[in-house]
Amino acid sequence: MLRAAVAEGSELGRAADDHIRAGRLVPDPLVLEVLRDRLQRPEAARGFVLDGFPRNLAQAEALDRLTTLDAVVYFDILPREIVDRLSGRRVCPSCGTVYNVLTSPPRAAGRCDRDGEELQQRPDDRPEAIRVRLQVYEEQTAPLLDHYRRRGLLRSLDASGTAAVVADRLRKLLAAGRDVPSG
Predict the structure, then answer these.
(1) Cα-flanking dihedrals φ and ψ of residue 67, to 5°?
(2) Fewer CB within 10 Å, N or C, the chain?
(3) What distance in Å separates the CA atoms of residue 110 and residue 104, rounded to the nearest whole number?
(4) Cα distance between residue 34 and residue 103, in whole Å
(5) Could you read off the pLDDT of 94-108 as tens digits, one per residue?
(6) What value does the mean pLDDT take over residues 120-131?
(7) Residue 174, domain member (yes or no)
(8) With left for phi above 0 and alpha for psi between -120 and 50, is residue 50 left, alpha or beta?
């Protein structure tokens, strides 16, 4: 949502980009304004998916004032698997192609398949940074599970396994409107 606003160069996008470039979190009021703008667009009438928002109870309450949700999907996965997946991510600094050394490695180790550039690991994909992010999640975001569970919106998805397996489970969950067991 924020990336799209930044890419289109809207006034809201430029304001968000100022924060992003300075290494700051985009303030909630600005994030909510971008969200309000996106939800008013015709394509949102067919439905929408929010990834990584809301991150805390205050954002969830603000979201509740903006729109009605049909479901909230919780990707249930062990913390060690999160660390393994994210710490395996590598990015080409030139073309932006994303690889994973475990699940989708480049043909030549450490080199981009498209342009041969040396792949880089983002600082926030290092195991120690991921563990900090997981702690912040436990403190700020995990309480949202009870918030949405009480409202009957929470759907739990077993997120272990390959991307294809998890995507298949997600399609089934959304089609069925309830939790889908693993397997």
Answers:
(1) -160, 170
(2) C
(3) 12
(4) 34
(5) 999 999 999 999 999
(6) 93
(7) no
(8) beta
